[in-house]
Amino acid sequence: VRAAYEERRRAAASIPAQPAAEASVAFEALRRRFEAIDATLVGLLAERMLASRAMVHAKAALHHPVVDNAREREAAAARRALGDQLGVDAEMLERVFAEVVEWSRRLQGG
Fold first, then answer.
1. Could you tell me which of 56, 97, 66 has the C-alpha nearest to residue 79?
2. Which DSSP symbol is given to 4?
3. Rounded distance, CA 48 to CA 2, Å?
4. Would you call 23 helix, strand, or coil by DSSP?
5. Segment (H or E) for 97
């Protein structure tokens, strides 16, 4: 993951200033890239929603509570470490996952 990120970061950093016509083409390509990334994020959120709903049944079968604070702290630490490796802003990551985790809790009835 880190190597792929670094390769994309280096490629983006090496893009020179361009004449207006070339910049327009690059701009449109970047727009399409953002749209593709957004579609991927939406798909991943949908997958997480399905997994959260499935987790309800697993937790019920095992008599586990919906909220497991220790597990959530462990998962948050793993996300922070990955975010640090990839250069993702820690505050943004925390805010995004606070919403995602709260959404998962609601889906699980917690």
1. 97
2. H
3. 23
4. helix
5. helix 90-107
Instruction: Give 50's DSSP letter.
Output: H
Query: What is the DSSP secondary-structure string of 53-101?
Result: HHHHHHHHHHT--S--HHHHHHHHHHHHHHHHHHT--HHHHHHHHHHHH
Show the tokens assigned to 90.
Answer: 């820690």
Structure pTM? 0.74
Res 108: pLDDT: 87
Residue 45 amino acid letter: L
**79 near 97, Cβ under 8 Å?**
yes
Structure-token match 């983006």, residue found: 12
Please give the mean pLDDT across all residues of the chain.
Answer: 90
